[in-house]
């Protein structure tokens, strides 16, 4: 497969890209500062990324940022920023990418453990992750040409120790195990699924 991995410079994106490459797939890496730049907050940037990447068999999104603040400090703009980046950004990958993915191809989004397990300061992230998971399940029923969509919902990664103090007692996810789930989503037959780890 030709696999477009967005957010390939981050912990999750590196794990996904490595897993696809290990199985012999052609990996095209996109990120905010890489050779194939993309900003998911900018529709023109997404369209240009697809133009440059050419036809692909799978789009794998491993990106999206949200603010972490105590609930009492979160403003409407914080929620909006998280929604526009993590939710609408990935939704636009689907919306603008339909004609750039081969028949029977797939989209895989990234949500996160906070959709199901809250932590202090994580309300905006929980909102974004939950919204994106609901979208994935709904969109799966309407995609044309045999296209599929799933989401991977990882916990904190073993090799991201800077995040460990914010997730006390949470199961830490090995990068290789996480990467394999992205391959399962893109190369399998499931659609509308949320693959949770950790």
List keywords for this structure.
198 residues; alpha/beta; Rossmann fold; 6 strands; globular
Task: Describe the structure concisely for a colleague.
With 198 residues, the protein is an alpha/beta fold. It has five helices and six strands. A six-stranded parallel beta sheet has the order 2-1-3-4-5-6, with helices on both faces.
Write the layout of secondary structure elements.
Layout: E1 2-6, H1 11-22, E2 26-30, H2 43-53, E3 56-61, H3 76-97, E4 101-110, H4 123-139, E5 148-154, H5 175-187, E6 194-197
Parallel strand pairs: 1-2, 1-3, 3-4, 4-5, 5-6
Helix pairs in contact: 1-5, 2-3, 3-4
Q: Using DSSP, what is the number of strands? A: 6
Low-confidence stretches: none
Provide the CATH superfamily: NAD(P)-binding Rossmann-like Domain
Shape category: globular
Approximately how much beta-strand content do the residues carry? 15-25%
Helix content: 25-40%
Rg to the nearest angstrom? Answer: 16 Å
CATH topology description: Rossmann fold
The largest sheet, given as strand count, sense and whether it forms a barrel, is: 6 strands, parallel
Within the largest sheet, what's the order of strands? 2-1-3-4-5-6
Q: Distance N terminus to C terminus?
A: 28 Å
Order of helices and strands: EHEHEHEHEHE
Question: What is the total domain count?
Answer: 1
Description:
With 198 residues, the chain is an alpha/beta fold. It has one domain: NAD(P)-binding Rossmann-like Domain (Rossmann fold, 3-Layer(aba) Sandwich). Strands 2-1-3-4-5-6 form a six-stranded parallel beta sheet, with helices on both faces. Helix 2 runs parallel beside helix 3. It is globular.
């Amino acid at each position: 497969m030709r696999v477009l991995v967005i957010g390939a410079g981050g912990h999750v994106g590196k794990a996904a890209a490595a897993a696809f490459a290990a199985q012999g797939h052609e990996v095209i890496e996109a990120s905010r500062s890489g050779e194939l730049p993309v900003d998911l907050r900018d529709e023109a940037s997404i369209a240009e990324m697809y133009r440059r990447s050419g036809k692909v068999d799978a789009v794998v999104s491993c990106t999206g940022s949200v603010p972490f603040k105590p609930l009492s400090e979160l403003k409407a703009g914080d929620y909006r920023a998280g929604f526009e980046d993590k939710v609408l950004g990935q939704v636009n990958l689907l919306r603008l990418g339909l004609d750039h993915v081969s028949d029977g191809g797939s989209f895989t989004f990234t949500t996160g453990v906070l959709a199901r397990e809250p932590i202090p300061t994580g309300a905006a992230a929980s909102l974004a992750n939950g919204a994106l998971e609901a979208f994935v399940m709904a969109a799966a029923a309407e995609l044309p040409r045999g296209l599929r969509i799933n989401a991977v919902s990882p916990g904190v990664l073993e090799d991201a120790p800077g995040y460990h103090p914010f997730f006390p007692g949470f199961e830490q996810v090995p990068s290789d195990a996480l990467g394999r789930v992205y391959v399962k989503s893109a190369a399998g037959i499931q659609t509308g699924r949320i693959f949770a780890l950790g």
